[in-house]
């Protein structure tokens, strides 16, 4: 079986190299020949493979590859829903518990959002969490304690405002779901930041999730169409975010569970 590992051409560094090499090695142990290709390369090629493991967020490319008839995991639609926090919230609204969230009205230029922010403060209270709709590793996420602080972060990018779950300050649970099953879970904690992300200094410990947490994580992934995904759950049980290509090396180092072969076995079961 042959596959392509699609990655972003412009994200470089040792942590990316480690992940890519690990995925290629894990595939090889299952007799899958996995070729590394960047989105820049694939943009000008006509690739042939049994499947594509799409470890990027270039959804236009993913959609184009799907139209060529190559199975793409995760799908362009699923990546798009996870990449945009507003779309994630809308898709999961009424399906799983989520923090109270308001989506900023669409605007085509720099505009005065003060009226929306004032209404949001009444509905969500202070402090509240400002999030750009697009961002990874906890970037472009801010805990805002005042009207002026919220306004200072608003530019031309789409954003959401979310209630601050104070009991989850610097803490959450990450569940890794593959094929509708929880295959690994960790508790993340950061004593120096309200965000739990390991990139921002958070620490991981192995965690045994409750039946309710597993149910909500699996349901979220199914609703978003994910073959595999990382689901972040706050201390009050709400689903905070869903990741279509969560970084699996840190979780493997913490739990000794290698998610890569589980992903490849699930892909193989879907394309036979």
Q: How many DSSP E strands?
A: 13
Helix content: 25-40%
Rounded average pLDDT: 95
- Kindly estimate the percentage of residues that lie in beta strands according to DSSP: 15-25%
List the helices and strands in order. Answer: EHEHEHEHHEHEEHEEEEHEEHH
What strand line-up does the widest sheet have? 11-10-9-12-13
Q: How would you describe the shape?
A: globular
Ranges with pLDDT <50 over ≥5 residues? none
Main sheet characteristics: 5 strands, antiparallel
| SS content category | alpha+beta
Radius of gyration in whole Å, from Cα? 19 Å
End-to-end Cα distance, whole Å, is 10 Å
Helical run tally: 10
What would you say this structure looks like, in words?
The structure is a single chain. A 5-stranded antiparallel beta sheet has the order 11-10-9-12-13, with helices on both faces. By secondary structure, the protein is an alpha+beta fold. It has helices spanning 14-29, 39-42, 59-67, 76-83, 85-92, 114-124, 147-153, 211-224, 249-255, 260-271, and strands at 2-7, 33-38, 51-54, 72-73, 101-103, 128-132, 141-144, 159-163, 171-178, 181-189, 203-206, 228-233, 239-243. α3 runs antiparallel to α4 (76-83).
Outline of the structure:
The protein has 272 residues and is of the alpha+beta class.
Which helices and strands, and how do they pair?
Elements: E1 2-7, H1 14-29, E2 33-38, H2 39-42, E3 51-54, H3 59-67, E4 72-73, H4 76-83, H5 85-92, E5 101-103, H6 114-124, E6 128-132, E7 141-144, H7 147-153, E8 159-163, E9 171-178, E10 181-189, E11 203-206, H8 211-224, E12 228-233, E13 239-243, H9 249-255, H10 260-271
Helix pairs in contact: 3-4, 4-5
């Amino acid at each position: 079986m042959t596959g392509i590992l699609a990655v972003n051409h412009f994200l470089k560094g040792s942590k990316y190299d480690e992940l890519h090499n690990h995925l290629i090695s894990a595939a090889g142990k299952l007799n899958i020949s996995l070729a590394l290709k960047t989105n820049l390369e694939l943009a000008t090629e006509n690739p042939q493979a049994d499947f594509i493991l799409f470890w990027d967020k270039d959804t236009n490319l993913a959609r184009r590859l799907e139209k060529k008839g190559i199975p793409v995991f995760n799908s362009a639609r699923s990546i798009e829903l996870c990449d945009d926090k507003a779309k994630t919230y809308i898709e999961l609204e009424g399906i799983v518990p989520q923090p109270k969230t308001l989506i900023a009205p669409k605007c085509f230029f720099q505009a005065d959002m003060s009226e929306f922010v004032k209404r949001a403060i009444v509905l969500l209270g202070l402090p509240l969490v400002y999030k750009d709709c697009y961002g990874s590793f906890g970037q472009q996420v801010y805990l805002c304690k005042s009207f002026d602080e919220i306004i200072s972060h608003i530019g031309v990018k789409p954003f959401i405002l979310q209630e601050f779950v104070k009991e989850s300050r610097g803490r959450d649970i990450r569940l890794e779901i593959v094929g509708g099953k929880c295959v690994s879970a960790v508790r993340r904690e950061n004593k120096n930041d309200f965000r739990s992300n390991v990139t921002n200094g958070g620490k991981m410990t192995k965690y045994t999730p409750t039946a309710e947490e597993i149910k909500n994580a699996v349901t979220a992934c199914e609703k978003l169409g994910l073959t595999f995904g990382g689901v972040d759950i706050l201390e009050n049980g709400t689903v905070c975010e869903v990741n279509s290509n969560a970084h699996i090396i840190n979780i493997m180092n913490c739990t000794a569970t290698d998610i890569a072969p589980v992903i490849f076995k699930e892909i193989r079961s879907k394309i036979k």
